[in-house]
Structure formats: structure tokens, C-alpha cells
Design goal:
The complex is a heterodimer of chains A (470) and B (313). With 470 residues, chain A is an alpha+beta fold. Chain A has 15 helices and 23 strands. Chain A folds into 2 domains: 294 residues, no CATH class; 61 residues, Dna Ligase, domain 1 (2-Layer Sandwich), CATH 3.30.1490. Chain B folds into 2 domains: 151 residues, no CATH class; 161 residues, no CATH class. The chains are: A alpha+beta (470), B mainly alpha (313).
Chain lengths: 470, 313
């Protein structure tokens, strides 16, 4: 039995959903469906689309939106934010440590191999002090829920977490469709996010910045699957959206080509991976980056957000050490729980995982987007057998977790309201001595009955996420 | 603003203007064909010439008939100047310049593209043609409306204005150039119904029939039409009006940036030279030569603006 966030075992609405449910049960189905179509037209018009990598014809597709909101009480949220804040501070401290003295390794709390084998580890970052001491300016912490008070962190996204435009546009759409709901139910606003992002980035300006910080968003370009979001964020913050070829190094600063010549940038919010950031320092074939930007960064001429090399914390093998990491740097046990994780690199764990493949979820250590994973209970015998071989060939490349009984929230399906599994990605902004968590986030929902995979690349949809005011 | 953004804005507005102009050309052609079926082929030939894509047309077609030309100009994906291709590019440029556009403007371009993509997915039946053409013009007008209602009057605005005006002047000059033989005094049989239809077609192509009648009290002579489309100071599609607007936009940019660029001088030169002539002088020295020269200058100005404001390098 799964925990449904809206209705309890007796079909009675739980506390946070009471007002919404009372409203919903009096609504006519036909009207709700009409609103769904309206929402789709709204999204098409705003152009909030994404491209799917594997499709030859890079078609623009909409992520399905479900109009039934996901609602979280003020009390639940307060507890989550405490845990998130603690975790994000620990992540930053960990990254600083890893690129400086590596105390945590010397203390024997995480193995050296974890860093040595981590593809996202950047030796060039050793000894570099990022402006303000901030590595992870923007973090998305993926949470799942299995019961009334049971929340788990599923993964940390500190590289380039995406999806925040959906958090904002989903709310816009709901406000547009059901203004009356928002006058009756007090929901925390999320619309400050772009402004907070701008301020947060400005507080991380490098020492070379002498005036009001000039900020820019760096995108791989029009054909990137998240281009809409890059343009959206730049537009909402009121900053320029640049590509590698708009930038060059001028007088020891990174500068953008404007209609009046080259102007220096202070803070760059990059949506380009480390590897493509600087062909001189990293991947020499990259056409997306800026030759020499890393040298300017090291000299304090620009802030790169998130800092190069933060990707090590997205690694799923490292994830399994997060409880130790949090305790090591904050001196307190982690408020948010990790999902129990078997590291297949360890012989005992591997044999346990191989014996129980049908019941486990197995993920690639460096994977993301729901690609290359096995959901044991949902897989066929053949798929399990094939995966078993992959796992045996490269055990260190995988971790395994129990199949969690993810909570459900109803969606408006063809047959009426139907429970579907969800997760939650709150967005966290980090600046010197400060952590801002937007009261809301992106709720992803598996649109297929019984499916536990919520990734948009795998057919998942989204919901508006309401944090109720106290 | 970024040079790249200025470039995308400038081209987005050129392309929107172009989509509308092409629709208007097809409309004028269609009307002519309905009025005098006999010389339909000639008319369609000159429409393709005016649209500036005769070369591309002949690569894939042997004959100029209504269905083929209409299809080529409205929806042929292989024709980079078709309405569908041009609107698609405009939307792509709008995505590129997204940070310089208000939400209203972006959504009107995006929605326009979605509507036109559907509308032009299949060959257009002649019975639907008037509606299709009206929709194309409306979509372009809606973007312009959103733009005028919401855009800040800053450098962003100036680049958009320049794109629109340069395309517009180019279009007016080409309409006149393709038809100049009708306007020449020697071939003008005053009062003959045949030429009235031709003249009307010229005015319609420039969306100027009604304005012309207001301005000239219904007295249709070749010289007056040319005067109207080249020298009139109130006609928003006349060459003079467009040149005047170039100067205004470039002066505004000079004020905003605190620096005047060579393109401003060029634009003033163009405006002054248009103003210095009367229509009689232009006819005497040759209308075709005059228009050819104007088109070259217009192109050169576009190039100079790209250089001055670092569109590409």
C-alpha cells in the first residue's frame, strides 16, 4: 500500500488538502478537462518545451502538466528546509575540504578512491578559493516521501539543477486558471525566485568587481534541451543570455560582445558542463566555452556558478556517504535521511544486490535523467538478466537501493482521479553565509499507473507545488 | 545589449515584415489573376520576381501558374523566403533575442508560428486563400501591436525599428522596380482599364490603395503613384518615410550610446538624396536606375549597421 498525500485509508482528505479537496469535489469533470486543455494551450504559447536527445528530429515537446496541486503543510516544510539547509552547508564544506586539505579523507570517513575514481573531480580546482567560499550556488535536492513523516533524499543535484522554470510556469498557469483558489487558500509565493537568484549571485561577486555586479547566463545555445529555461531565467533576472562565442578574455576579464564593444562580466551562471567550459583548460574540442576563462577564474576575475568541480557531489557512490559527510562538517546527525544504499564496489553488497535484483533499483554511479537504470520490480526477466551481466562487468559503476514505496498524489486521468507516484525538487540558493530555499519546488509525477520513474525524459509530468502559509 | 541579440532582433523584425509583404504580394497577384485570367502567367512571374526569389523558383519549377507560385511563396520549406520559412526564422530569432522581448511579444511570435505552421501544413486551396492571407497579415500585426504596446523605447526598440524599415523600403523599391515599365510615361495609356488594374496591383502590393486615393483624390497617374511610394512623407511604406525613420532610429542609438556611428551618416545621406529629387527628375534620369541604386544603398546601410553595432564580430 502506498502513502497517498491527499487521501487517507478511509478516503478522507488529509489536513493540508482539506480546503482544496472540498473545492475539488464540487467541480464538474468536464470543466476540469477543459481547464487541462487550457493549460496545455498556455504552455504551448509560452513555448516552455524541451527537446528529447534520442529523437532524430529534435522536436519540441511539452512536459505533461497535471492540474491537481501537490500540497505541503507549513510544519512539514519547516522541517524539510532545516534538513535541506544543513545538507547544503555540509556539501559546500565538503567541496571546500576536498579541494583543499581533504580532512575527511584523512579522518577515514570517506575513501580516497571515491574522489580518485570520480570523473567530476577537477584537479585544476585544488587550492582554488571560489569567491565568497561558495561552490554550490544553486542546488536542487530531490526528495521522496513514503509516509506521514518519512522523507528521504534521493539525490543531490549540485552540478546544474534544471526545472526551476517549470516551478514558476506551473504556478503562473494555476493562477491564470484558478485565481479563486488562491484567494481562498494561502499558498506561499514562488515568484521571487528569479530576483533572489540575481541577488544571491550578486553577493558572490569576485574581487575584481568594483561596481554593481554584471551577471550573465551562459547557455550551450538554441538547440540545448533546456534552452527555454536558460532564456527564461536570464529574461526574468534581467541579465544577458550569452553563448561561448559572445565571450572573450579582454584585459584579464571575461567580457561579452555588446553593441558598444566588449564589457566585462562579474558573475556567470553557467548552464554548460565543466568539461565544455574552457577548451584551453578542459576539453579542447569544446565549442561552447570560453578559452582561458578558468585562468581568469583562478585569478579572481570572475565568479562561475556553480563552481567548476562541484559535480563530484552528484555522484551516486558519494551519495551513500552523505550521512557521514553531514555529520563530519556540521557536528550533528543528518536531519534528512538518505535512502539505504548498497555500493556494488563492495563485495558483500554486490552479492546481496545480485541475489535481490528483482526487488531493487540499480543506478549508474554517474548517471542522471533516469537513463541506464534498472527498476527491478518493473523489469522483465530478460531485462534483469541483461542488467546482471552489465553489473558484474563493472560493479563499481553502480549502486543499488530498495524499491521505495513512493507516495502518491492523484492526477486527473482519463478515468477520473487516479493516484500516481511523485517526488519533489526544492531549489536552494547559496551565497556567503546564507541559504535561501524557495517555498515550493518542482513536483515530478510518473504519469503511468504504477510507474516509479518520474523523469521527464521517461514520460514523467509535473505538478504545481503548494507550501501552505502558516 | 549583446551584439548577437541586436542581430536577432533586427532580423526577427525584418522577417516578420517580410512575411506580411509576401502575403500582400500574393494577394495582389491573386486579385489580378481573378480580374484578367488571360495574362495570369505574366502576373505570377512578376510576383515571383518582386519577392526576389525567381532564381530559387526556376530551380524547381518550369511554369508560373497560380497554384505553384502560391505554394512556393507561402509554404515551400525549400524556399527560404516562403512565409512559412520566414516566420520560422523569425521565431528562432525571437528565441535568440528572448531576453530583449517582453512576454507579450514573445508569446505573439510563438503563437503566430504555431498557428501558421498548422495553417500551412497542407497546400492552400484557392477558396481558403483569402482567409489564409488575412491570418498571415494578422499574426504579423499582432506581434507589432504587442511590441508597440509593451517595448521600452531604448536601443532594443531602435534595432527592431531598423529591421522593419529596411525590409519595408526594400519591398517597396522592389515592387516599383518590377513594375516600372508600367509606370513609364511611354507605355502608360492613360485611362485604359488594363493599366488601371496594373496600377491598382502596385498600390495593393504596398497596402496603399486607399491611402493613395485619400492623398490624391482618385487621380491615378503613373507619376503620382511613383511619387506616393517614393517621396510621400506621410505614407509609412514610402522610401522617404523609411529613410527618415532610419535617421531617427540611428540618432536615438547615438544618443543612448553617446557615440555616432558611420551608419547614421549613411542614412542621412540616403534621406537627403531622396528628398532632393522630384518625381519628374527621377523619371527623367530613369526610374529603374534610381531604384537599383536605392536597393544597393539600402543593402549597404544594413551591412554598415551590422558592423557598427557588432552584430557578428
Amino acid at each position: 500500500m502506498f502513502f497517498d498525500e491527499m487521501l487517507d485509508e478511509n478516503g478522507v482528505a488529509r489536513e493540508p488538502y482539506k480546503d482544496y479537496h472540498a473545492w475539488l469535489k464540487d467541480r464538474d469533470r468536464g470543466m476540469l478537462r477543459k481547464k487541462s486543455r487550457e493549460a496545455e494551450a498556455f504552455f504551448r504559447r509560452t513555448g516552455i518545451t524541451f527537446n528529447v536527445y534520442s529523437e532524430a528530429e529534435a522536436d519540441e515537446r511539452l512536459i505533461p502538466f497535471d492540474q491537481i496541486p501537490r500540497i505541503i503543510s507549513a510544519r512539514e516544510w519547516a522541517k524539510l528546509t532545516k534538513g535541506i539547509e544543513q545538507r547544503v552547508q555540509a556539501l559546500n564544506a565538503f567541496l571546500y575540504d576536498i579541494y583543499h586539505d581533504q580532512d575527511i579523507i584523512r579522518a577515514g570517513r570517506v575513501p580516497q578512491s571515491l574522489i580518485a575514481n570520480n570523473e567530476a573531480f577537477l584537479p585544476q580546482m585544488i587550492g582554488v578559493d571560489p569567491p565568497g567560499g561558495v561552490y554550490t550556488h544553486i542546488v536542487g535536492v530531490d526528495l521522496v516521501r513514503t509516509g506521514q513523516d518519512e522523507f528521504f533524499v534521493l539525490e543531490d543535484n549540485a552540478r546544474t539543477p534544471s526545472g526551476v522554470s517549470y516551478m514558476l510556469e506551473n504556478r503562473e498557469t494555476m493562477l491564470h486558471m484558478y485565481p479563486e483558489l488562491f484567494s481562498n487558500i494561502r499558498v506561499e509565493s514562488v515568484s521571487d525566485y528569479p530576483l533572489n537568484l540575481r541577488r544571491s549571485l550578486a553577493r558572490c561577486a569576485p574581487k575584481a568587481c568594483t561596481d554593481k555586479p554584471v551577471i550573465a547566463v551562459l547557455t550551450p545555445g538554441l538547440h540545448n534541451s533546456a534552452y527555454y529555461e536558460h532564456a527564461f531565467l536570464a529574461e526574468q533576472m534581467g541579465v544577458e543570455l550569452v553563448e561561448g562565442h559572445d565571450l572573450r578574455i579582454v584585459d584579464g576579464r571575461v567580457a561579452m560582445r555588446t553593441t558598444r564593444g566588449y564589457m566585462p562580466i562579474d558573475v556567470i551562471y553557467r548552464r554548460v558542463d565543466d568539461d565544455f567550459l574552457d577548451p584551453l583548460n578542459f576539453n579542447p574540442d569544446s565549442m561552447l566555452g570560453v578559452p582561458g576563462i578558468f585562468d581568469i577564474y583562478r585569478a579572481g576575475g570572475i565568479t562561475i556558478a556553480n563552481a567548476p568541480g562541484t559535480g563530484i557531489s552528484d555522484d551516486k557512490a558519494l551519495y551513500s556517504y552523505m550521512p557521514d559527510i553531514v555529520e563530519f562538517y556540521t557536528g550533528k546527525p543528518a536531519i534528512l535521511q538518505n535512502v539505504p544504499t548498497w555500493r556494488c564496489s563492495e563485495a558483500d553488497s554486490l552479492s546481496h544486490v545480485l541475489d535481490n535484483l528483482e526487488d531493487l533499483v540499480v543506478k549508474e554511479v554517474h548517471g542522471s535523467g533516469g537513463y541506464g537504470m534498472l527498476v527491478g520490480p518493473a523489469a522483465s526477466k530478460k531485462e534483469v538478466a541483461a542488467f546482471r551481466e552489465k553489473l558484474k562487468a563493472n560493479p563499481a559503476g553502480y549502486i543499488a537501493q530498495p524499491t521505495l514505496a513512493l507516495s502518491t498524489v492523484p492526477v486527473l486521468a482519463k478515468s477520473g482521479l487516479a493516484p500516481r507516484h511523485v517526488d519533489l525538487r526544492p531549489y536552494v540558493l547559496v551565497s556567503p553565509d546564507r541559504v535561501d530555499i524557495t517555498p515550493g519546488g518542482l513536483t515530478r509525477v510518473a504519469m503511468k499507473e504504477g510507474s516509479l520513474v518520474v523523469n521527464s525524459s521517461q514520460g514523467g509530468g509535473t505538478k504545481d507545488t503548494w507550501i501552505l502559509e502558516d | 545589449m549583446l551584439g548577437k541579440t541586436a542581430n536577432a532582433l533586427y532580423w526577427m523584425f525584418r522577417q516578420l515584415e517580410r512575411s506580411e509583404n509576401t502575403a500582400r504580394l500574393v494577394e495582389a497577384g491573386f486579385r489580378m489573376a481573378l480580374t484578367r485570367a488571360a495574362s495570369g502567367q505574366n502576373e505570377w512571374t512578376s510576383i515571383v520576381l518582386t519577392a526576389g526569389c525567381d532564381h530559387a523558383y526556376r530551380e524547381s519549377h518550369d511554369e508560373y501558374d497560380a497554384d505553384r507560385v502560391i505554394d512556393f511563396l507561402l509554404r515551400d520549406a525549400d524556399n527560404p523566403a516562403s512565409v512559412l520559412s520566414v516566420f520560422k526564422s523569425a521565431r528562432s530569432n525571437a528565441r535568440m533575442a528572448r531576453t530583449a522581448l517582453t512576454r507579450e511579444v514573445w508569446e505573439s511570435v510563438n503563437e503566430g508560428w504555431l498557428v501558421l505552421k498548422d495553417l500551412l501544413a497542407k497546400p492552400v486551396n484557392q477558396s481558403e486563400l483569402p482567409n489564409v492571407l488575412a491570418t498571415i497579415r494578422q499574426r504579423s500585426a499582432m506581434v507589432r501591436g504587442a511590441w508597440h504596446g509593451t517595448a521600452l523605447r531604448n536601443d532594443i526598440y531602435s534595432f527592431a525599428q531598423l529591421g522593419t524599415r529596411l525590409e519595408r523600403a526594400d519591398n517597396t523599391a522592389r515592387i516599383l522596380d518590377v513594375k516600372y515599365y508600367v509606370l513609364l510615361p511611354a507605355t502608360a495609356y492613360v485611362g485604359s482599364s488594363l493599366d488601371n488594374v496594373q496600377w491598382e496591383s502596385i498600390l495593393r502590393s504596398a497596402s496603399a490603395a486607399r491611402a493613395f486615393n485619400w492623398q490624391y483624390g482618385g487621380e491615378t497617374t503613373p507619376m503620382k503613384i511613383a511619387d506616393f511610394l517614393i517621396l510621400d512623407s506621410q505614407m509609412p511604406r514610402s522610401l522617404y518615410y523609411c529613410c527618415n525613420d532610419y535617421v531617427r532610429s540611428l540618432d536615438e542609438l547615438a544618443t543612448i550610446y553617446g557615440e555616432e556611428k558611420p551608419s547614421a551618416d549613411m542614412a542621412r545621406g540616403m534621406r537627403d538624396s531622396v528628398k532632393a529629387q522630384t518625381i519628374e527628375m527621377i523619371f527623367r534620369s530613369g526610374l529603374h536606375e534610381y531604384l537599383t541604386d536605392f536597393l544597393a544603398q539600402n543593402n549597404a546601410l544594413g551591412g554598415q549597421i551590422e558592423t557598427d553595432y557588432r552584430f557578428n564580430v
